Structure to design on (341 residues):
């Protein structure tokens, strides 16, 4: 297990236009208790999030799940991906992406400009329309990840600008973009170096078909990159457990000074403490869901000196103690099994 769990705040945003009477069925299909949406610190797996997304699209007949002024008919994203993938390089892929989106009723318009050494992919609300944070973060994230997939390597971002104030869950944005975030900006935009626009599109038609079949699940993950320090640190800590390597040990293992590593992590929009806590949280959730290990055993596996310290941390991460979390999961599994009979 090396995937990051997803905050319930994104589920709330995604389903904010879904009629309440339909939500219970959507949660059941994803193996989730309906009342999880009321738990401010609840988290779900990428697979559960993808299932919720697919089900919400199917039920509503709208790939935008009600977030745009007009519906996006099922299959729109497939057509977009096919059209954009015919580009020869990143520059023309972005141009095709903008050309396609311009014919949709989204409530916003994408724009692109080069200014000096930087390229700016921007989205601007149309007259009389309000673009929500969910629409901004999803459009920018999916555009960035799809373009990165097309050229076969993550496109490093200089920063991501958002036109709205920083939300309470701003730390979650790190895994959306692996980039510094700037809120309350004049434009919502992705900013990266112009030299990257010449990167060739390397994916074939068969590659695209495989991608589309698994959407949106596969776009919840960034393509791997050896210079992604966040993932390298997560892997190092995970392999070291139950020992807890120090920041200095990790920086030395990466061949960097502590100051340089701190700067590199800042460029990815996070810090060491955040990475460590998120990894332990996600591993704890996975162990509670997938194993029969006791809370005491899990606490020692994760390097806690006392189970009480682990229980306090888990409650802080998720809002509930670990045994309560496990009982919730077991009750939902039982309910799903009964309904499937």
């Amino acid at each position: 297990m090396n995937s990051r769990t997803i905050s319930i705040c994104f589920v709330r945003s995604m389903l904010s236009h879904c009629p309440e009477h339909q939500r219970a069925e959507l949660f059941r299909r994803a193996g989730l208790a309906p009342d999880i949406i009321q738990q401010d610190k609840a988290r779900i797996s990428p697979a559960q999030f993808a299932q919720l997304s697919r089900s919400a699209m199917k039920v509503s007949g709208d790939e935008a799940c009600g977030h745009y002024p007009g519906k996006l008919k099922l299959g729109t994203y497939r057509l977009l991906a096919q059209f954009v993938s015919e580009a020869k390089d990143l520059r023309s892929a972005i141009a095709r992406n903008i050309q396609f989106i311009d014919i949709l009723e989204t409530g916003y318009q994408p724009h692109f400009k080069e200014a000096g050494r930087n390229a700016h992919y921007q989205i601007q609300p149309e007259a009389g329309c309000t673009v929500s944070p969910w629409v901004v973060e999803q459009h920018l994230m999916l555009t960035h990840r799809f373009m990165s997939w097309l050229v076969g390597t993550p496109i490093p971002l200089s920063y991501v600008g958002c036109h709205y104030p920083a939300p309470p869950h701003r730390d979650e944005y790190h895994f959306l973009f692996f980039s510094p975030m700037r809120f309350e900006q004049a434009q919502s935009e992705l900013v990266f170096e112009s030299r990257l626009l010449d990167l060739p599109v390397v994916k074939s038609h068969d590659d695209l078909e495989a991608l589309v079949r698994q959407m949106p699940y596969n776009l919840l993950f960034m393509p791997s990159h050896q210079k992604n320090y966040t993932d390298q640190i997560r892997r190092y800590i995970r392999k070291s457990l139950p020992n807890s390597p120090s920041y200095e040990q990790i920086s030395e293992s990466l061949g960097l000074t502590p100051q340089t590593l701190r700067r590199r992590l800042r460029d990815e929009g996070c810090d060491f403490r955040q990475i460590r806590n998120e990894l332990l949280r996600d591993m704890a959730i996975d162990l509670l869901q997938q194993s029969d290990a006791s809370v005491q055993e899990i606490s020692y596996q994760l390097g806690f000196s006392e189970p009480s310290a682990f229980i306090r941390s888990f409650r802080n991460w998720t809002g509930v103690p670990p045994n309560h979390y496990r009982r919730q999961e077991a009750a939902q599994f039982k309910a799903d099994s009964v309904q499937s009979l």
Notes: The chain has three domains: 6-60, 76-205, 229-340. The radius of gyration is 21 Å.
